[in-house]
Amino acid sequence: MQNISKSNLNSHQSFRYAIISLILFFTTLLISVVTILTHFSSNILSLILGFTVLVIVFLSIVGFIDALKGFKEPKSTKKTIGFIVNSVFLILFLAMMVNNILDMYKAVN
Fold it and tell me: Which of 3, 57, 63, 101 is buried most, with the most CB atoms less than 10 Å from its CB?
């Protein structure tokens, strides 16, 4: 196991959250593709997929905050990967939220 110094703790946490988010994202993507290809639809499956997306959003927000806290830590590959992956998930979530708000606005008008 790798020895994590206190000076790199936030960067390692950010990287860990990014990896977990990526695993959950690809799991969600795989389940969605299988669901579409097999024409299998279930309320429970939709609930599980929605929950995993919420977990991804939560982990990416926490990981992004940890990445910002670790900005003054020594440079490392994990720090860069954690920051980029968490930022991408956060930007995707914000874009999805803006898109939903615009759709609701168009539906009302």
Answer: 63
